[in-house]
């Protein structure tokens, strides 16, 4: 089983990331974040991919259970609170931390500020 960008978008998690993290708000950054996350997930062993796919499919229901709003339509404050509450649940906490870290790394690695710094000769850290 391979996860696709469509699977991740369908879960609503990228919409929550965009609301919770300003750097993921612009569409190009969010696309790169999703691409990087899916690419990394597809390198994981099959068992982990299956578990992640199930968790992503259940994410809208879990999000709705803690916010009474869907992840695609939640206002930014609700999205942030929903993610915070889900990070308190065993299982989802670890998954959300890992997926969010992958997304942020994906956006960071492809961000325009990175190429701008490299052109000016400054150190990129």
Reported for the largest beta sheet, the result is: none
Total beta strands: 0
In DSSP terms (H or I, runs of 4 or more residues), the helix count works out at: 7
Instruction: Give the helix/strand class.
Output: mainly alpha
Domain module tally? 1
State the helical fraction.
over 70%
The residue-averaged pLDDT reads: 88
Instruction: State the order of secondary-structure elements, H for helix, E for strand.
Output: HHHHHHH
What are the segments in which pLDDT stays under 50 over at least 5 consecutive residues? Answer: 114-125
User: Beta-sheet strand percentage?
Assistant: under 5%
* Separation of the first and last Cα atoms: 35 Å
Shape: globular
Query: C-alpha Rg, in Å?
Result: 15 Å
Provide tags for this entry.
mainly alpha, 125 residues, disordered C terminus
Structure description:
The protein has one domain (about 5-110). The chain is about 75% helix and about 0% strand. The N and C termini lie far apart (about 35 Å). With about 120 residues, the chain is mostly helical. Helix 2 (about 15-20) packs across helix 5 (about 75-85) and helix 3 packs across helix 6 (about 90-110).
């Amino acid at each position: 089983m391979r996860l696709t960008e469509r699977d991740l978008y369908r879960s609503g998690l990228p919409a929550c990331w965009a609301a919770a993290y300003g750097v993921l708000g612009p569409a190009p950054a969010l696309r790169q974040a999703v691409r990087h996350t899916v690419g990394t997930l597809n390198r994981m062993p099959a068992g982990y991919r299956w578990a992640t796919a199930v968790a992503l499919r259940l994410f809208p229901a879990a999000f709705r259970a803690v916010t009474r709003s869907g992840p695609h339509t939640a206002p930014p404050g609700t999205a942030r609170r929903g993610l915070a509450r889900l990070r308190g649940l065993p299982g989802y906490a670890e998954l959300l931390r890992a997926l969010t870290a992958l997304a942020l790394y994906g956006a960071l690695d492809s961000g325009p500020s990175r190429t701008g710094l490299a052109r000016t000769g400054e150190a990129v850290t």
